[in-house]
UniProtKB/TrEMBL annotation:
Protein family according to the UniProt entry: Belongs to the TRAP transporter small permease family.
Subunit structure: The complex comprises the extracytoplasmic solute receptor protein and the two transmembrane proteins.
Any coiled-coil regions, as ranges: none
Protein name per its UniProtKB record: TRAP transporter small permease protein
Organism: Halomonas binhaiensis
C-alpha cells in the first residue's frame, strides 16, 4: 500500500526553536520582575502609611499630652525613605518617573529608540553602582553592629536594607524593561511598554500582528 508523503512532518528549524525558548524565558523573567515590583510597591505604600501614623502619634504625644518623643521622628525618616526606595521599581515599571520628552517627541522612531536605550543603559549602570555600594554598607553595618547614635539608638542595618533591596530591584527592573523593548535580537514578540524606550512606532513583530 503506497504511503502518502503529505502527512510527513516538516523538519524543525533548531534556530527558531531556540529563539522561541529564549523569548519564553525573557517573557517569564519580565513577568516575574513585574510581580516583584508590584509587591515592593505594596510594601512601600504600607511603610508610607506607617510613617504618616508615626507623625500623627508624635504630634498627639508632644502637643496634646505634652510629653517628649524619642523614636517617632527617626522611625518616620526610615519608613518614608524605605517607601521611596522600594517604590522606585514600580515607578520605572509604569513609566511614572518625571521625564522631559521635548526632544524625543520630535525625533524619528529609530533615533528616539537609540537615545532612550542609551539613557536606559546609563540608568542601569548607576543603579548597579548604587546596589553594590548599598550592599557593602549594609554588610559592614551588620557585622560591626552599628547603631544610629540617637536617643532611640536602633541598629542601623534595617534603615540600609531598603536602599540595597530597592537598588537591586531597580537593576532587575531595568533589565526587564530593556528586554521588553526588544533590545535583544531574540526577544521579538515581547510587548513594549511606553515610558522607557518608546518603541511603539517601531514595526510590530509577528506575534503582535497575530494578536
Amino acid at each position: 500500500m503506497p504511503h502518502s508523503t503529505s502527512g510527513h512532518a516538516q523538519p524543525r528549524d533548531p534556530r527558531g526553536h531556540g529563539q522561541s525558548l529564549v523569548c519564553r524565558l525573557i517573557n517569564a523573567y519580565c513577568h516575574l520582575m513585574d510581580r516583584l515590583s508590584i509587591a515592593a510597591a505594596v510594601l512601600a505604600a504600607a511603610l508610607l502609611g506607617l510613617g504618616v501614623l508615626a507623625v500623627c502619634h508624635m504630634i498627639f504625644v508632644r502637643y496634646i499630652l505634652g510629653a517628649s518623643t524619642s523614636w517617632q521622628t527617626e522611625f518616620c525618616v526610615f519608613s518614608i525613605s524605605a517607601a521611596m526606595l522600594l517604590g522606585a521599581p514600580y515607578v520605572l515599571l509604569t513609566g511614572g518617573h518625571v521625564a522631559i520628552t521635548a526632544l524625543p517627541d520630535v525625533l524619528p522612531p529609530l533615533p528616539r529608540f537609540v537615545m532612550n536605550l542609551i539613557a536606559s543603559l546609563v540608568g542601569l549602570g548607576f543603579c548597579i553602582a548604587l546596589a553594590y555600594g548599598a550592599w557593602l554598607y549594609l554588610l559592614e553595618a551588620w557585622h560591626a553592629g552599628w547603631t544610629t547614635g540617637t536617643v532611640w539608638n536602633p541598629p542601623l542595618w534595617p534603615a540600609l536594607l531598603p536602599i540595597a533591596l530597592g537598588a537591586t530591584l531597580l537593576v532587575t527592573q531595568y533589565l526587564a524593561e530593556i528586554a521588553r523593548a526588544r533590545i535583544l535580537p531574540s526577544s521579538k514578540g515581547l510587548s513594549p511598554r511606553k515610558g522607557l524606550s518608546s518603541t511603539e512606532d517601531l514595526p510590530p513583530s509577528k506575534n503582535q500582528e497575530a494578536r
